[in-house]
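**User:** Everyone, produce a chain:

**Assistant:**
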Amino acid sequence: MTYSKNLPLWLAFGSALFWGLWWMPVRALEAVGLTGAWAGTAMFAGAIPALILLFLWSKRPITFDLRVILSGAMVGSAMMLYSYAVTETTVVRAILLFYLAPAWALAIECVFLGRKFNGTNALALVLAACGILLIFRGDVSLANWTIGDGMALLSGVCWAVGSTLVFSGKDVGARTIALFGCSGALIVGLLMLLLSGAALPITENGVETAGLLTLSGTFYIAPVLIATLWSARRLNPTTISFLLTGEIISGVASSAVFLNEPFGWPEAIGSCVIIGAALVEVISPKKTS
């Protein structure tokens, strides 16, 4: 199958805009009683039936390659940790801490994939760091550090590792990796709930909650995840990580409008600087061999 060489770039950036709005269904589930890790865990459970159907519909042979399974586990861990993070810290902090992922991805590429670090990479990282510093208004101390901040940071590390494995591993199709990823997210969520001793939530309207889970899982998580992983297979880990910073545009803006989270000139300029870092990296994306 042929496709425009720019399609993975645009698809990754478009997916990022949707990921930036992910906090909305998570917070909606939280509002009906699925608090903390329950919200993300329930969403991934709602996405799995659709992903199983797509998995079975695929004409590709079913493959259970260890690297593929591991990549799914890391991507799933990243998604689950991030969904938990947005319930425990501000959306802006969760997004920005996650987007240290390009730095981790670049380090992994240089160490394990033989990528040479150059001036373009350095400029992109410096711009990203400056953008984060601006958005945090210079306050990068650990004084106000929360568990949500830690989860967001860890989710970026997991995504960097997962996207590297997707890029360098066997091509088994985005639908297959998406199913493994969503299953991994569900398992991680259940483990988090088990270890935290969280009680089973009781919602006032079970039908409404079930409908929200089905809609968000089938028509949001599944297609956006498949599009992201399809692009991740075709773009190197650093490029895909920088492209996904498009999430900052929709995430920061929507949280400022709907949640009244702080959004002034530092956030505006910082977001532009981080997007600039993504553009610098994408100027000449190269796929390592």
About this structure: The chain has a mean pLDDT of 80. Residues 255 and 261 are 6 Å apart (CA to CA).
